[in-house]
Amino acid sequence: MSLKRVANVAGLLQVFVACSMFLTGLVALAYADGDAAAFFISGTVTLLVGSATYLSTRFDDEVTIREGFAIVTMAWATTAAFGSLPYIFSGVVDSPIPALFESMSGFTTTGATVFADIEVLPHGILLWRSMTHWIGGMGIIVLVIAVLPYLGIGGMQLFRAEVSGPAPERLRPRITQTAKLLWLVYFGMTAVIGLLYLIGGMSPFDALNHAFSTVATGGFSTKNTSFAEMSSYIQWVTIIFMYIGGVNYALHFRAVTGDIRYLRDAEWKFFTAVLIFAAGAVIALNLFAGDAFGEKVVRDGLFQVLAITTTTGYVSADYDLWVPGARMVLFSLFFFGGMAGSTSGGVKALRVMLLLKQAANELRRHLHPRAVLVTRIGNKSVTEEVAARVVGFLMLYLLLCMVGALALAMTGIEPLTAISGSIASVGNVGPSFAGLGPTDNYGWMSEPGLGVLTFLMLVGRLEIYTVLLLFHPELWKSRKAYH
């Protein structure tokens, strides 16, 4: 383990973060809300520390697997820390912990906020919140890999530790090419969403903010009511792109190049089927409860199912007031998430599908003890090693949610709020139920509670193993480099 390499990549990443702060500062200067100085000061501090760290820790050889885990975790942690500076210097928060929470929520695309009144925030702060979503959506380490060809083979270690899903997929032989292609698709989708929002009547500022947030499946909005008071056109556009954001970006890239594989992809078919079933169930339950049949009840059902499943966290209706059955469907989706390789959080559809197939095989094995049963995803067989990793991940995921809920309860939060808040943070969903529902915020929580949730958001975004491995003694004891 070379701390020098860890510090080098983390330092270089802060240079990009500083540039983003300067750009945001220029926008803040144009609106003259008084927060521009906070971004230039934050950017200067971040640039000086980042560039000094990078220049003093240069290296020429490749990154090992162990260093990859450490680099990714420390890069996200330090980025969130420096990203909290504009909130502190602008005075919109009165303590570093809420600022760090807001920053981590932005970069991990969780979308939880400590602000009760979003519309009174300066334009620069609003844009910075959305900017952190956009940077974190595709992945800040993927951004580094895209512009760091000198990492060579070592870049794959960062890619594996950063990209969501059991098995990250290469689109090109060189990992730097894959990272650049993913960012190209991501940038193009952002432009399309922003244009469609403009056509729908959003102001250029709101269109830019919501484009950043939507493509990243983040959830931050410039409005207190999120999407509840927006037009049906804008909500339908958001529904479509929340769905697109929950799909594996490798499929999007191949579709752009003429190789359309959606209907041949087993995970896509499973993901889409679950969405259709869940939305249908929510709509039917609300209709049985007395809602009038029409476009709105269908739109609200689809919107909230997609917002939670893709972990976007937008709100078009107060689902905490829906009938218990509909709320239970939504609660179950907190554990689902989007497809592997998407910007969504959660467990991921591929893991859920594999777990169900494994369970079905175990039932058959009880009936036919001597049968040789192979778990398949599409036409590909799944090895026992991969299946064991998925089961292990799911167990850790549930354990983390339970431990997080217990820690929150120990800070004085009532049990239902603690449970739903923990699950929403690990899954990077944002709004939850009870005291953290769609019309509430996290600003009332104590600093210890916000600290717990900040850690849960980081661990959930990096899919648990990347962070927890840093607490394993063997990672630090052995000096042998594994590739």
Order of helices and strands: HHHHHHHHHHHHHHHHEEHHHHH
Radius of gyration: 22 Å
Tell me the helix content.
55-70%
- SSE class: mainly alpha
List the SSEs and their pairings.
Elements: H1 3-31, H2 36-55, H3 65-83, H4 85-90, H5 96-107, H6 123-138, H7 140-146, H8 154-162, H9 175-199, H10 204-215, H11 232-245, H12 249-256, H13 266-288, H14 295-309, H15 324-333, H16 349-367, E1 376-377, E2 380-381, H17 384-410, H18 415-426, H19 447-461, H20 465-468, H21 473-477
Antiparallel strand pairs: 1-2
Helix pairs in contact: 1-2, 1-3, 1-6, 3-5, 3-8, 5-6, 5-19, 6-10, 7-9, 9-10, 9-12, 11-14, 13-14, 13-15, 16-17, 17-18, 17-19, 18-19
What does this structure look like?
The protein is mostly helical. The chain has helices at residues 3-31, 36-55, 65-83, 85-90, 96-107, 123-138, 140-146, 154-162, 175-199, 204-215, 232-245, 249-256, 266-288, 295-309, 324-333, 349-367, 384-410, 415-426, 447-461, 465-468, 473-477; strands at residues 376-377, 380-381. Strands 1-2 form a two-stranded antiparallel sheet. β1 and β2 form a beta hairpin. The longest helix is centred in the first third of the chain and has 29 residues, at 3-31. Mean pLDDT is 87; it is low at 149-157.
List keywords for this structure.
mainly alpha, 21 helices, 2 strands, 64% helix
